[in-house]
Automatic annotation (TrEMBL):
Residue ranges flagged as DNA-binding region: 130-229
Record has DNA-binding as a keyword: yes
Keywords, alphabetical: DNA-binding, Phosphoprotein, Transcription, Transcription regulation, Two-component regulatory system
Origin organism lineage: Bacteria, Bacillati, Chloroflexota, Chloroflexia, Candidatus Thermobaculales
Modified residues (4-aspartylphosphate): 54
UniProt xrefs under PANTHER family: KDP OPERON TRANSCRIPTIONAL REGULATORY PROTEIN KDPE, REGULATOR OF RPOS
Protein name, entry field: Two component transcriptional regulator, winged helix family
Organism: Thermobaculum terrenum (strain ATCC BAA-798 / CCMEE 7001 / YNP1)
Amino acid sequence: MKKETIVVVDDEKSILKYISQQLKAKGYNVYPGMNGEEAISLVEQHDPDLLLLDLKMPVMNGLEVCKRLREWSKVPIIVISAYDDVEYVVEALNSGADDYVRKPFHQEELFARVKTQLRRAEERPSQQVQSVFRCGPLTINFSRRQVTLNDEEVKLTPTEYSILEQLVQNAGKVMTHQMLLNRVWGPEYTEENEYLRVYIGRLRRKLDPGPNGPKFIVTEQGVGYRFVDACSQ
């Protein structure tokens, strides 16, 4: 029988050691980490069945980790945090967490929640989003937020990357102006079509593979934009 794998990330060494030891004693494979970047790296390397994640951590906090992972991973996430205000619970769940356990916690409650998330994961159909997208000369590593063209890194601003990410993850579908503006900038910007036009222009220049290469972003006149995944055609 396959041993289930759990990644545990907490910057408090004593809690990290305690949870890791208890999980190992129950027969799980455990990979510990102490900051947000390690959390993402461990998920990418080990494709775990579950992630236990603290909120307040150095380098990258738990909320940002949840958001980054949900760009490409369906791994169940249980947040374990000393924050007990409902606003933190809501923000964690909205960022992609599946459950929230407050510190200090009862050991048996935590392990009951672990079992519940693992059971639910087994019952779901596998719908893991690829962490790396490739199409001809273009490669996008969603976990590292890295874009390369013809094996050379393309330097994108955070906004340019967010637009490209939305287009690629909806490849072949038309993304309306309002949809892109809302997802990248927020609902108060849904009428700022000129914003979008400028950034699309910058993206096209940076992703231009040359005269004989594919044109990745096409304009749907008066509607929006579409990423053309030439590799799937």
